[in-house]
Amino acid sequence: MRLPCVLLLCLGAATVSAAFVLSPTHWTKLILTHHWPTTFCKMEHCHSNFNYWTLHGLWPDKGMACNSSWAFNSSLIQDIIEDMKKSWPDLRHPNSTGFWKYEWQKHGTCAAVAPDLDSQHKYFSKALELYHKIDLSSVLKKFNITPSEEFYKFPAIESAIENFYGAKPKIQCDHHTGNGAQSLGQIEICFDSDFTLLDCEKETVGVGLRVGKGRARASEFRVCDQDKPVYYPPL
Questions:
Q1: Which residue among 46, 134, 152, 189 has its CA within the 20 to 30 Å range from the CA of 141?
Q2: Is 203 among the catalytic positions?
Q3: pLDDT (tens digit, 9 = 90+) per residue, 181-203?
């Protein structure tokens, strides 16, 4: 059952204008991608002090590096920089802006065909807005799904997220845990072009693998196995 709009966090406060005319090369879906820092850092050999889900990115479903001449400029997002450090940190290089530069150049320049995302400030601000409204860490906790040494059943995690948001997530795991389980690693929440929640596709190979040099080894994140236990590793 889909939740009423007021509970579903009506996220379309800003609507993409009529100027956003779709073409075969324009995106139709945005993917808000979250990392679980403990799993990420186990894969990347980094150290994380974050005990909540952090942003990986806001990705259009079509296009990569759409405007290589549109350089990232951190001075344009100084008013949101503290929120960026907290909500969208570079887990491998905490003091660097390289992660944000990468996300802007690869994904932000493609998202920018939409008027509501047509500047660096708009793009990063909208991603933060959606991230805070989704509040994934709190939603999982609401359903008693918290980091633990105990294993979870995958359908319980998936159904909790789907039932709350009224849309299917794409949940990915690290399958190289060596204990017969899989570690919860990445969760995608999807929106249409007016920022309304919609179902994510569950293809094993796709947008979730588009992170490239210097970022997460997303080839190790694959859609979770329905039948394997899930480890949600604590900090």
A1: 46
A2: no
A3: 999 999 999 999 999 999 998 76
